[in-house]
Design goal:
13 strands, alpha/beta, 16 helices, single chain, 8-stranded mixed β-sheet, binds magnesium ion, 16% strand, 2 domains, binds adenosine-5'-triphosphate, Rossmann fold
Protein backbone atom coordinates (compact mmCIF):
# COMPACT_ATOMS: atom_id res chain seq x y z
CA UNK A 1 0.00 0.00 0.00
CA UNK A 2 1.44 3.34 -1.10
CA UNK A 3 -0.28 5.21 1.76
CA UNK A 4 -3.63 6.63 2.80
CA UNK A 5 -4.75 9.92 1.23
CA UNK A 6 -7.53 12.13 2.57
CA UNK A 7 -9.15 13.96 -0.36
CA UNK A 8 -11.16 17.01 0.69
CA UNK A 9 -13.18 18.48 -2.18
CA UNK A 10 -16.88 19.31 -2.59
CA UNK A 11 -16.87 18.69 -6.35
CA UNK A 12 -18.07 15.14 -7.09
CA UNK A 13 -16.26 15.13 -10.46
CA UNK A 14 -12.91 16.05 -8.88
CA UNK A 15 -13.45 13.46 -6.13
CA UNK A 16 -14.11 10.73 -8.68
CA UNK A 17 -11.07 11.66 -10.77
CA UNK A 18 -8.72 11.83 -7.80
CA UNK A 19 -10.08 8.60 -6.39
CA UNK A 20 -9.45 6.78 -9.67
CA UNK A 21 -5.96 8.22 -10.14
CA UNK A 22 -4.87 7.49 -6.60
CA UNK A 23 -6.34 3.99 -6.40
CA UNK A 24 -4.64 3.06 -9.66
CA UNK A 25 -1.35 3.96 -7.97
CA UNK A 26 -2.11 1.82 -4.94
CA UNK A 27 -3.21 4.54 -2.52
CA UNK A 28 -6.08 4.03 -0.12
CA UNK A 29 -8.48 6.98 -0.46
CA UNK A 30 -10.69 8.58 2.18
CA UNK A 31 -13.14 11.28 1.05
CA UNK A 32 -14.54 14.38 2.73
CA UNK A 33 -16.64 17.16 1.21
CA UNK A 34 -16.45 19.80 3.91
CA UNK A 35 -14.29 21.07 6.78
CA UNK A 36 -15.79 19.35 9.84
CA UNK A 37 -15.74 15.95 8.13
CA UNK A 38 -12.16 16.60 6.96
CA UNK A 39 -10.97 17.41 10.49
CA UNK A 40 -12.74 14.36 11.90
CA UNK A 41 -11.21 12.02 9.30
CA UNK A 42 -7.77 13.57 9.74
CA UNK A 43 -8.03 12.62 13.44
CA UNK A 44 -9.54 9.16 13.04
CA UNK A 45 -7.79 7.93 9.86
CA UNK A 46 -4.25 9.35 10.32
CA UNK A 47 -3.73 9.79 6.55
CA UNK A 48 -0.22 9.98 5.08
CA UNK A 49 -1.23 13.07 3.06
CA UNK A 50 -4.11 15.50 2.51
CA UNK A 51 -5.29 16.83 -0.84
CA UNK A 52 -7.24 19.86 0.23
CA UNK A 53 -9.44 22.02 -1.99
CA UNK A 54 -8.94 25.70 -1.13
CA UNK A 55 -12.54 26.73 -1.80
CA UNK A 56 -14.79 24.50 0.28
CA UNK A 57 -18.30 25.66 1.19
CA UNK A 58 -18.41 27.28 4.66
CA UNK A 59 -15.03 26.91 6.40
CA UNK A 60 -12.55 26.93 3.51
CA UNK A 61 -9.43 24.85 2.85
CA UNK A 62 -7.05 27.51 4.15
CA UNK A 63 -8.83 27.39 7.49
CA UNK A 64 -8.77 23.59 7.55
CA UNK A 65 -4.98 23.62 6.96
CA UNK A 66 -4.45 26.25 9.66
CA UNK A 67 -6.61 24.30 12.14
CA UNK A 68 -4.72 21.08 11.49
CA UNK A 69 -1.37 22.83 11.96
CA UNK A 70 -2.67 24.42 15.15
CA UNK A 71 -3.83 21.07 16.51
CA UNK A 72 -0.81 18.96 15.54
CA UNK A 73 1.33 17.83 18.45
CA UNK A 74 5.13 18.21 18.44
CA UNK A 75 6.82 15.91 15.97
CA UNK A 76 3.63 15.38 13.93
CA UNK A 77 3.17 16.94 10.50
CA UNK A 78 0.78 15.59 7.90
CA UNK A 79 1.82 16.75 4.42
CA UNK A 80 -0.87 18.93 2.81
CA UNK A 81 -1.18 19.77 -0.89
CA UNK A 82 -3.65 22.61 -1.45
CA UNK A 83 -5.66 22.50 -4.66
CA UNK A 84 -6.37 26.03 -5.86
CA UNK A 85 -8.46 27.06 -8.82
CA UNK A 86 -6.63 30.24 -9.64
CA UNK A 87 -3.12 31.00 -10.93
CA UNK A 88 -3.24 34.14 -8.80
CA UNK A 89 -0.06 34.18 -6.71
CA UNK A 90 -1.90 35.52 -3.63
CA UNK A 91 -3.86 32.23 -3.39
CA UNK A 92 -0.65 30.25 -3.47
CA UNK A 93 0.95 32.44 -0.82
CA UNK A 94 -2.19 32.08 1.29
CA UNK A 95 -2.02 28.30 0.96
CA UNK A 96 1.61 28.14 2.09
CA UNK A 97 0.97 30.59 4.93
CA UNK A 98 -1.95 28.51 6.14
CA UNK A 99 0.46 25.57 6.50
CA UNK A 100 0.19 23.73 3.17
CA UNK A 101 3.46 22.15 2.04
CA UNK A 102 2.71 22.47 -1.64
CA UNK A 103 -0.07 23.60 -3.99
CA UNK A 104 -1.41 22.65 -7.40
CA UNK A 105 -3.56 24.80 -9.66
CA UNK A 106 -6.59 23.01 -11.16
CA UNK A 107 -6.65 21.56 -13.75
CA UNK A 108 -3.38 19.72 -13.22
CA UNK A 109 -1.82 16.67 -14.82
CA UNK A 110 -2.20 13.49 -12.72
CA UNK A 111 1.51 12.74 -13.24
CA UNK A 112 2.45 16.03 -11.61
CA UNK A 113 0.11 15.40 -8.70
CA UNK A 114 1.54 11.91 -8.14
CA UNK A 115 5.15 13.13 -8.37
CA UNK A 116 4.55 15.85 -5.79
CA UNK A 117 2.63 13.51 -3.49
CA UNK A 118 5.36 10.90 -3.63
CA UNK A 119 8.05 13.45 -2.88
CA UNK A 120 6.15 14.88 0.10
CA UNK A 121 5.27 11.50 1.59
CA UNK A 122 8.91 10.45 1.27
CA UNK A 123 10.12 13.67 2.90
CA UNK A 124 7.88 13.35 5.93
CA UNK A 125 8.49 9.65 6.26
CA UNK A 126 12.27 10.23 6.19
CA UNK A 127 13.75 9.09 9.44
CA UNK A 128 10.86 6.75 10.15
CA UNK A 129 11.68 4.64 7.09
CA UNK A 130 15.37 4.62 7.93
CA UNK A 131 14.88 2.62 11.10
CA UNK A 132 17.93 0.43 11.63
CA UNK A 133 20.22 2.67 9.65
CA UNK A 134 21.06 6.13 10.96
CA UNK A 135 21.55 8.83 8.32
CA UNK A 136 25.13 9.08 7.08
CA UNK A 137 25.19 12.84 7.77
CA UNK A 138 27.88 13.73 5.22
CA UNK A 139 28.13 17.48 4.65
CA UNK A 140 29.62 18.28 1.25
CA UNK A 141 30.40 21.85 0.21
CA UNK A 142 30.51 22.73 -3.48
CA UNK A 143 32.70 25.76 -3.71
CA UNK A 144 33.17 27.72 -6.94
CA UNK A 145 36.73 28.95 -7.20
CA UNK A 146 35.43 31.46 -9.73
CA UNK A 147 31.96 32.66 -10.73
CA UNK A 148 30.25 30.82 -13.55
CA UNK A 149 32.41 27.67 -13.50
CA UNK A 150 29.38 25.42 -13.02
CA UNK A 151 29.25 24.97 -9.23
CA UNK A 152 25.48 25.19 -9.00
CA UNK A 153 25.02 22.87 -11.99
CA UNK A 154 27.25 20.23 -10.39
CA UNK A 155 25.81 20.59 -6.86
CA UNK A 156 22.18 20.23 -8.01
CA UNK A 157 22.77 17.35 -10.39
CA UNK A 158 25.04 15.48 -7.99
CA UNK A 159 22.36 15.79 -5.31
CA UNK A 160 19.84 14.20 -7.68
CA UNK A 161 22.33 11.50 -8.68
CA UNK A 162 23.02 10.62 -5.02
CA UNK A 163 19.29 10.40 -4.40
CA UNK A 164 18.94 7.98 -7.31
CA UNK A 165 21.56 5.84 -5.53
CA UNK A 166 19.01 5.49 -2.71
CA UNK A 167 20.58 8.08 -0.45
CA UNK A 168 18.50 10.67 1.38
CA UNK A 169 19.70 14.07 0.22
CA UNK A 170 19.09 17.68 1.13
CA UNK A 171 20.45 20.46 -1.06
CA UNK A 172 21.19 23.83 0.56
CA UNK A 173 21.45 26.97 -1.56
CA UNK A 174 24.24 28.71 0.33
CA UNK A 175 24.40 31.58 -2.11
CA UNK A 176 22.12 33.55 0.18
CA UNK A 177 21.96 36.77 -1.82
CA UNK A 178 21.70 35.52 -5.37
CA UNK A 179 20.82 31.85 -5.03
CA UNK A 180 19.95 30.19 -8.32
CA UNK A 181 18.20 27.04 -7.17
CA UNK A 182 14.69 28.41 -7.71
CA UNK A 183 15.59 29.09 -11.35
CA UNK A 184 17.40 25.81 -11.93
CA UNK A 185 14.46 23.89 -10.50
CA UNK A 186 11.57 26.08 -11.62
CA UNK A 187 10.34 27.07 -8.16
CA UNK A 188 8.55 30.34 -7.50
CA UNK A 189 9.60 33.04 -5.05
CA UNK A 190 6.75 32.21 -2.69
CA UNK A 191 8.43 28.93 -1.60
CA UNK A 192 9.76 28.95 1.95
CA UNK A 193 13.47 29.62 2.42
CA UNK A 194 16.24 29.50 4.98
CA UNK A 195 14.94 32.81 6.37
CA UNK A 196 11.77 31.06 7.57
CA UNK A 197 14.00 28.68 9.54
CA UNK A 198 16.10 31.34 11.26
CA UNK A 199 13.07 33.39 12.30
CA UNK A 200 11.75 30.59 14.48
CA UNK A 201 12.70 30.43 18.18
CA UNK A 202 14.21 26.92 18.18
CA UNK A 203 16.02 25.06 15.44
CA UNK A 204 15.21 21.38 15.15
CA UNK A 205 14.29 18.78 12.55
CA UNK A 206 10.53 19.44 12.85
CA UNK A 207 11.07 23.10 12.12
CA UNK A 208 13.28 22.37 9.14
CA UNK A 209 10.85 19.80 7.74
CA UNK A 210 8.27 22.57 7.56
CA UNK A 211 10.64 24.86 5.67
CA UNK A 212 12.24 22.39 3.26
CA UNK A 213 10.78 22.00 -0.20
CA UNK A 214 10.79 18.68 -2.03
CA UNK A 215 11.89 18.62 -5.65
CA UNK A 216 10.16 16.17 -7.98
CA UNK A 217 13.38 14.14 -8.08
CA UNK A 218 12.93 13.44 -4.36
CA UNK A 219 15.77 15.71 -3.22
CA UNK A 220 14.79 18.08 -0.41
CA UNK A 221 15.75 21.72 -0.77
CA UNK A 222 16.61 24.49 1.62
CA UNK A 223 16.21 27.51 -0.62
CA UNK A 224 17.94 30.87 -0.45
CA UNK A 225 15.84 33.89 0.53
CA UNK A 226 13.62 35.25 -2.25
CA UNK A 227 15.38 38.62 -2.17
CA UNK A 228 19.01 39.64 -1.47
CA UNK A 229 18.24 41.99 1.42
CA UNK A 230 16.94 39.21 3.68
CA UNK A 231 20.20 37.25 3.34
CA UNK A 232 21.62 39.30 6.24
CA UNK A 233 19.15 37.68 8.62
CA UNK A 234 21.13 34.43 8.41
CA UNK A 235 24.19 34.41 10.69
CA UNK A 236 27.13 31.98 10.67
CA UNK A 237 25.79 30.49 13.94
CA UNK A 238 22.44 29.84 12.23
CA UNK A 239 24.23 28.12 9.37
CA UNK A 240 26.12 25.91 11.81
CA UNK A 241 22.91 24.88 13.56
CA UNK A 242 21.10 24.25 10.28
CA UNK A 243 23.87 22.03 8.94
CA UNK A 244 24.13 20.17 12.23
CA UNK A 245 20.39 19.40 12.28
CA UNK A 246 20.29 18.49 8.58
CA UNK A 247 23.27 16.16 9.02
CA UNK A 248 21.26 14.31 11.68
CA UNK A 249 18.41 13.85 9.19
CA UNK A 250 20.04 12.99 5.83
CA UNK A 251 22.75 10.87 4.27
CA UNK A 252 24.02 13.85 2.28
CA UNK A 253 23.81 17.57 2.95
CA UNK A 254 24.95 19.16 -0.31
CA UNK A 255 25.74 22.87 0.07
CA UNK A 256 26.29 25.13 -2.94
CA UNK A 257 28.41 28.20 -2.16
CA UNK A 258 30.18 30.83 -4.24
CA UNK A 259 33.78 32.04 -4.10
CA UNK A 260 33.45 34.65 -1.34
CA UNK A 261 35.33 33.72 1.81
CA UNK A 262 32.88 35.53 4.08
CA UNK A 263 31.84 34.32 7.54
CA UNK A 264 28.93 32.23 6.30
CA UNK A 265 30.94 30.48 3.61
CA UNK A 266 33.80 29.88 6.06
CA UNK A 267 31.32 28.27 8.43
CA UNK A 268 30.13 25.94 5.65
CA UNK A 269 33.74 25.09 4.72
CA UNK A 270 34.64 24.47 8.39
CA UNK A 271 31.73 22.14 8.95
CA UNK A 272 32.03 20.24 5.66
CA UNK A 273 33.50 16.76 5.58
CA UNK A 274 34.73 17.43 2.06
CA UNK A 275 35.00 20.60 -0.02
CA UNK A 276 34.60 20.06 -3.75
CA UNK A 277 36.31 23.04 -5.33
CA UNK A 278 34.82 23.39 -8.79
CA UNK A 279 37.14 24.85 -11.41
CA UNK A 280 37.70 25.16 -15.12
CA UNK A 281 41.08 25.01 -16.87
CA UNK A 282 41.75 28.69 -17.41
CA UNK A 283 44.38 30.95 -15.93
CA UNK A 284 42.19 33.17 -13.77
CA UNK A 285 40.48 30.15 -12.26
CA UNK A 286 43.83 28.44 -11.61
CA UNK A 287 45.04 31.61 -9.88
CA UNK A 288 41.97 31.55 -7.60
CA UNK A 289 42.37 27.85 -6.83
CA UNK A 290 45.99 28.46 -5.80
CA UNK A 291 44.87 31.24 -3.45
CA UNK A 292 42.13 29.05 -2.03
CA UNK A 293 44.52 26.15 -1.46
CA UNK A 294 46.79 28.56 0.43
CA UNK A 295 43.89 29.80 2.56
CA UNK A 296 42.79 26.25 3.38
CA UNK A 297 46.33 25.57 4.59
CA UNK A 298 46.24 28.66 6.84
CA UNK A 299 42.88 27.58 8.23
CA UNK A 300 44.52 24.33 9.28
CA UNK A 301 42.31 22.06 7.17
CA UNK A 302 43.58 18.53 6.75
CA UNK A 303 45.08 17.88 3.35
CA UNK A 304 42.51 15.87 1.47
CA UNK A 305 39.59 17.86 2.85
CA UNK A 306 39.52 19.87 -0.38
CA UNK A 307 39.15 17.95 -3.62
CA UNK A 308 39.45 19.50 -7.05
CA UNK A 309 36.67 18.98 -9.58
CA UNK A 310 37.50 20.04 -13.10
CA UNK A 311 34.31 21.00 -14.90
CA UNK A 312 34.04 21.11 -18.68
CA UNK A 313 37.17 18.98 -18.62
CA UNK A 314 37.29 18.25 -22.34
CA UNK A 315 36.68 21.85 -23.46
CA UNK A 316 39.69 23.24 -25.30
CA UNK A 317 41.38 25.95 -23.23
CA UNK A 318 45.03 25.39 -24.10
CA UNK A 319 45.67 24.14 -20.54
CA UNK A 320 45.49 20.39 -20.05
CA UNK A 321 44.84 18.49 -16.85
CA UNK A 322 48.50 17.62 -16.34
CA UNK A 323 49.72 21.17 -16.59
CA UNK A 324 46.89 22.40 -14.31
CA UNK A 325 47.85 19.79 -11.72
CA UNK A 326 51.49 20.82 -12.04
CA UNK A 327 50.64 24.49 -11.48
CA UNK A 328 48.47 23.68 -8.46
CA UNK A 329 50.71 20.94 -7.06
CA UNK A 330 47.56 19.01 -6.30
CA UNK A 331 45.84 16.24 -8.25
CA UNK A 332 42.53 16.90 -9.96
CA UNK A 333 40.51 14.02 -8.57
CA UNK A 334 37.29 14.42 -10.52
CA UNK A 335 36.31 15.57 -13.97
CA UNK A 336 32.93 16.46 -15.46
CA UNK A 337 32.61 16.63 -19.22
CA UNK A 338 31.74 19.71 -21.23
CA UNK A 339 28.30 19.72 -22.81
CA UNK A 340 27.14 23.26 -23.15
CA UNK A 341 23.82 22.61 -24.89
CA UNK A 342 22.70 20.01 -22.35
CA UNK A 343 23.69 22.21 -19.42
CA UNK A 344 22.14 25.44 -20.68
CA UNK A 345 18.89 23.93 -21.92
CA UNK A 346 18.41 22.21 -18.56
CA UNK A 347 18.99 25.53 -16.85
CA UNK A 348 16.60 27.43 -19.07
CA UNK A 349 13.78 24.90 -18.79
CA UNK A 350 14.13 24.51 -15.03
CA UNK A 351 14.51 20.71 -15.37
CA UNK A 352 17.94 19.53 -14.12
CA UNK A 353 19.54 17.15 -16.66
CA UNK A 354 20.07 14.51 -13.98
CA UNK A 355 16.28 14.33 -13.60
CA UNK A 356 15.26 14.82 -17.23
CA UNK A 357 18.20 13.36 -19.18
CA UNK A 358 20.18 11.14 -16.84
CA UNK A 359 21.32 9.12 -19.81
CA UNK A 360 22.99 12.04 -21.62
CA UNK A 361 26.79 12.35 -21.74
CA UNK A 362 26.64 14.99 -19.03
CA UNK A 363 24.20 12.94 -16.94
CA UNK A 364 26.47 9.90 -17.07
CA UNK A 365 29.50 11.98 -16.17
CA UNK A 366 27.80 13.38 -13.06
CA UNK A 367 26.51 9.91 -12.14
CA UNK A 368 30.08 8.54 -12.25
CA UNK A 369 31.18 11.42 -10.03
CA UNK A 370 28.33 10.74 -7.55
CA UNK A 371 29.21 7.02 -7.42
CA UNK A 372 32.86 7.87 -6.73
CA UNK A 373 32.13 10.26 -3.89
CA UNK A 374 29.57 7.87 -2.40
CA UNK A 375 32.29 5.20 -2.26
CA UNK A 376 34.78 7.48 -0.49
CA UNK A 377 34.97 6.69 3.24
CA UNK A 378 33.15 9.16 5.51
CA UNK A 379 35.12 11.31 7.93
CA UNK A 380 33.61 11.93 11.36
CA UNK A 381 32.43 15.47 11.89
CA UNK A 382 33.63 16.57 15.32
CA UNK A 383 33.01 20.15 14.19
CA UNK A 384 29.29 19.41 14.03
CA UNK A 385 28.72 18.95 17.74
CA UNK A 386 26.13 21.31 19.25
CA UNK A 387 27.56 24.68 20.23
CA UNK A 388 30.87 24.36 18.39
CA UNK A 389 30.23 27.31 16.08
CA UNK A 390 33.27 29.57 15.80
N1 LIG B 1 29.67 20.58 -17.70
C1 LIG B 1 29.21 21.65 -18.33
N2 LIG B 1 29.27 21.74 -19.69
C2 LIG B 1 28.83 22.84 -20.30
N3 LIG B 1 28.29 23.90 -19.72
C3 LIG B 1 28.21 23.89 -18.39
C4 LIG B 1 28.65 22.78 -17.63
N4 LIG B 1 28.44 23.06 -16.32
C5 LIG B 1 27.87 24.28 -16.27
N5 LIG B 1 27.74 24.80 -17.51
C6 LIG B 1 27.14 26.10 -17.86
O1 LIG B 1 27.90 27.11 -17.23
C7 LIG B 1 27.06 28.19 -16.83
C8 LIG B 1 27.28 28.52 -15.38
O2 LIG B 1 26.80 27.45 -14.61
P1 LIG B 1 26.39 27.60 -13.08
O3 LIG B 1 25.38 28.65 -12.89
O4 LIG B 1 26.13 26.23 -12.60
O5 LIG B 1 27.79 28.10 -12.51
P2 LIG B 1 28.11 28.74 -11.09
O6 LIG B 1 29.57 28.49 -10.88
O7 LIG B 1 27.20 28.21 -10.06
O8 LIG B 1 27.82 30.27 -11.37
P3 LIG B 1 27.59 31.50 -10.34
O9 LIG B 1 28.92 32.07 -10.10
O10 LIG B 1 26.66 32.39 -11.10
O11 LIG B 1 26.96 30.92 -9.11
C9 LIG B 1 25.65 27.79 -17.17
O12 LIG B 1 25.28 28.36 -18.39
C10 LIG B 1 25.73 26.28 -17.29
O13 LIG B 1 24.77 25.77 -18.19
MG1 LIG C 1 26.01 29.22 -8.68
Amino acid sequence: MAGKVLVVDDDAGVQRLLQQTLRAEGYEVVLATEAAEALRLWQSESPSLLLLDATLPGVDGYDVAARIRGAETAGKHVPIIMLTSDRDVSQKVRALRAGADDYLVKPFHPAELLARMKALIARFAAGESLVGRPPMGRVHAYYGAKGGVGTTTIAINTAIALHSLDRSVVLVDGNLQFGDHRVFMDLANDRKSIVDAVNAPTMDSDLLKGVLQTHESGVDLLLAPPSPESADLVTPAHMHEILRVLASMYDYVVVDIDKRLDEINLMVLDVAETIFAVMTADLSCLKNVRLVLGTMGHLGYASGKLKLVLNRSNAYTGINVKSAEGALRQPIEYQIVNEYRGAISALNTGAPFMAAKADSVLGRSVMDFARDIDKAPAVSLAQLQPGTAR
